[in-house]
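In the design runs reported in the main text, the only information available to the sequence generator was the tokenized backbone. The following block is the verbatim input for one such run; it is reproduced so that readers can re-run the procedure and compare outputs position by position.
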């Protein structure tokens, strides 16, 4: 990617916070995640603990050929995680360094 001295826009999926109200907002949660992935070039994944939502978003993003930077401290991450991530690093610091070296952030 070309450097433009202008940082890429970023957003947190937690801007739509459904904690404690997941059962009443199933479709909104799924649709919001899909919209976020369609609107993104890069997905930064926190895979420190298993999560169905994170796994589904990771899989969907991989099928859409997005860059996926996964933070996973495990010594032996799941083959599914390895196979669907662009890169796996152990810390967020390493993830940000990877992104800085390859993208404008």
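Verbatim output:
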């Amino acid at each position: 990617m070309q450097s433009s001295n202008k940082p890429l826009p970023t957003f947190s999926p937690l801007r739509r916070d459904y904690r404690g109200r997941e059962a009443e907002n199933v479709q909104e949660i799924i649709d919001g995640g899909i919209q976020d992935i369609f609107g993104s070039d890069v997905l930064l994944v926190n895979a420190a603990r298993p999560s169905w939502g994170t796994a589904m978003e990771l899989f969907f993003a991989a099928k859409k050929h997005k860059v996926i930077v996964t933070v996973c401290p495990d010594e032996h991450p799941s083959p599914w995680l390895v196979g669907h991530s662009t890169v796996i690093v152990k810390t967020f610091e390493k993830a940000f360094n990877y992104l800085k070296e390859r993208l404008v952030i």
